Amino acid sequence: MTTLPQTVLLLDELAATYRVELAEGDAERWHRQLGRFHIDDVTAALDALQASPAQFMPTVGAFTDEVRQHVRRNGPTEPEPCAICDGTRWREGQSVTDGSIVYETVRPCEFCSPELLEAARAKVAETRKRSRGVNRDTLLPYRLGEKLAEAREGLRDITEPKSAAGGGA
Ligand SMILES: [Zn+2]
How remote is the CA of residue 28 from the centroid of ligand 1, in Å? Predict the structure, then answer.
């Protein structure tokens, strides 16, 4: 994995070499391509490029090709397992207690699964937003009980004679 700050450093280096001014969003654009490669493979491509510099700064596509060629020649550098999650992409979350039961929870690793963590956070925020201002009386279990009572009432009307339902006059 190559991190965004590493991509920024690489771009700065390239821009300085070729005396090119970077534009807004360049780093993100490059990172989308380079992020999936190991930093050592990206650095090797940079070294190769600087050993025999071209006249113009390579495009992100050309640079990515250079990285791919390096990987093809040498095999991909195996990533070190993440120190936070040991490469599992998940880490321990807070344990939740429900009565006497303790639930161990996990959450996505912020280094290995940032998208997943972001999605989980958005989901929690959305749930909180939705549950704000909800009248407890309108929650499903209450209405379910009401509907059940109605149904029973209806059933009794059908199965029991009118005189019995009226409690006897
Ligand atoms: Zn991790």
Answer: 21
